Amino acid sequence: MNLTVHGVGIKIGEQFQAKVENKMKKFDRYFGDKAVASVRFQHEHDDVRTEVTIKIRSHYYRAEAIAPEGIMALDRAIDIIEGQIRKHKARMKKKNRKFGYMKDYIATLETAEAEEDRDEEKLPTITRRKSFVITPMDAEEAVLQMELLNHSFHLFINDETGKVNLVYKRRDGDYGLIEPEY
């Protein structure tokens, strides 16, 4: 796995880098050398926010956690990513072509679950479908439309670029703009 570790306002020493690499080796046996991982540490008040992103082919796994120490936050983020993989195990089995790189990991999970004799979590299902016309507008107008509709996101065609964009409301009350590349 190709791993990059960087800190925002935090100096990453050699020993700390080695600890992070050791903890992230857990994913090597599942993803191999094709995966690209990024671990980012940032001070947030008296705590450390850790963001872990793993990209394998066209799939992303991302988690963030906050703890008093960076390693504790990293452990929490790794647990979150493992939970995401476990939660989507059934979906990955159905679409084996796209998740072929996870075949060994899925088999390992199945054996562990059989031993623990846990109840399966109910997988989320699509219960409603909606279609609508995407209209050209600028990002500010899209934010206004989103607020008027009382939604947390709004899909639109950017009238400057002619491409599909998405605006969304962030947890901090601000707005975000997603401009996909295609």
- Regions with pLDDT < 50 over 5+ consecutive residues? none
> In percent, how much strand structure appears in the residues?
25-35%
The helix/strand series, from N terminus to C terminus, equals EHHEEEHHHEHEEE
The name of the CATH architecture of the largest domain is 2-Layer Sandwich
Specify the biggest β-sheet.
4 strands, mixed
Overall geometry comes to: globular
Number of domains: 2
**Which class of the largest domain in CATH terms?**
Alpha Beta
Structural class: alpha/beta
Widest sheet: strand ordering: 1-2-3-4
Defining key terms:
alpha/beta, 2 domains, SHC Adaptor Protein, 6 helices, 182 residues, 4-stranded mixed beta sheet, Double Stranded RNA Binding Domain
What does this protein look like?
This protein has 182 residues and is of the alpha/beta class. 35% of the residues lie in helices and 29% in strands. It is built from six helices and eight strands. The strands form two sheets. The chain has a four-stranded mixed β-sheet with strand order 1-2-3-4, with helices on one face. The protein has a four-stranded mixed β-sheet with strand order 5-6-7-8, covered by helices on one side. α1 (14-24) packs parallel to α3 (70-87). The model has no long low-confidence stretch (mean pLDDT 83).
What is this entry, summarized?
This protein is of the alpha/beta class. It contains 6 helices and 8 strands.
Chain-wise SSE layout:
Elements: E1 2-8, H1 14-24, H2 28-31, E2 36-44, E3 47-56, E4 59-67, H3 70-87, H4 89-94, H5 103-116, E5 136-137, H6 139-149, E6 153-158, E7 164-169, E8 175-178
Parallel strand pairs: 1-2, 5-6
Antiparallel strand pairs: 2-3, 3-4, 6-7, 7-8
Helix pairs in contact: 1-3
